[in-house]
Amino acid sequence: MSKFFGDYHTHTYYSDGLNSPKSLLEMAKEQGYKEIAITDHGLANKIMGLTRAKIDKLSCDIESLRQEYPDITIYQGYEGDLISFDGSTDIYDDIMEKMDIIILGFHRYIKPKYFKEVFTFVFRNGFLAKWFGSSKKLIEKNTNALLTALKSRRVNILAHINHNMKVDCKKVATFCAEQGIYVEINIKHLNIMEKVIGEILATGCLFIANTDTHNVKRSNNLNKIYDFITKHNIPHDRVVNLGKAPNFAEQFTKKI
Ligand SMILES: [Zn+2]
Ligand SMILES: [Zn+2]
After folding, report:
1. Who surrounds ion ligand 1 at CB < 5 A?
2. Domain annotation covers residue 88
3. Cα of 106 to ligand 1 centre, how many Å?
4. What CATH number does the domain containing 34 carry?
């Protein structure tokens, strides 16, 4: 039995995952989860992301899975993208309205808002940062963009902080702490979290542990995150899905 109440970041074949929605429910059942969120990639991922038609199809699948697995709460979610230095996202109003849970992250395979940002925003943060690092100026621009997005959209979970797009983690986590936004501990990016956990922990923010699974045959549990929490002495009451349910309905300090 998992120590965690649920997994709130998962992918299916409706975006770039290999999982069927049902296989995620089977994973949840095996782990003993009470809840699961299905959170495929947003509309700005033009090749592998969701479309509005796919969102509707997935809604139907989720509806029948709710009948089939009455003991597990299923959230329909969305992993949105930052698409510009100006803080725009692909979390459009109708989508924000429809989704139970919204995640925000930076991803490399997106169509940015402005053509000129294909290089300055997407390539620079997504592909070149590994080789060229990120200048102070770039980090500042990224941080401002992310803060603007978090201020203007209802985001429940900030995904994989500092993965590709580097930000001022202290500043961003401080804002998350003030607003009640959950900072994700993503099992795929523990090495990145390892470097910044000290400064993030000091802000007092809340965390949520997720697999971000794209294939349940390869990733189906949160055990490694429990080890990470223990190693870094993260207080258990700061991890919202450790042994208890996150309270999405009353999550935010300030209503957005
Ligand atoms: Zn992601
Ligand atoms: Zn993801």
Report:
1. 105, 159
2. yes
3. 7
4. 3.20.20.140
CA of 87 to the centre of ligand 1 (A): 17
Ligand 1 center to 179 CA (angstroms): 21
**Which pLDDT tens digit goes with each residue over 107-131?**
999 999 999 999 999 999 998 888 8
Domain that holds residue 226: 6-250
Q: How many Cβ atoms sit within 10 Å of the Cβ of residue 86? A: 15
CA of 127 to the centre of ligand 2 (A): 18
For residue range 61-103, list pLDDT tens digits in order: 999 999 999 999 999 999 999 999 999 999 999 999 999 999 9
Ligand in closest contact with the CA of 8? 2
Give the type of residue at 28. A
Number of domains in the chain: 1
Instruction: Report the interhelical angle of 223-231 vs 190-201 (nearest 10°).
Output: 40
- The answer to whether position 255 is within a domain reads no
Q: What is the pTM of this model?
A: 0.97
* Distance (Å, whole) CA 255 – CA 177: 14
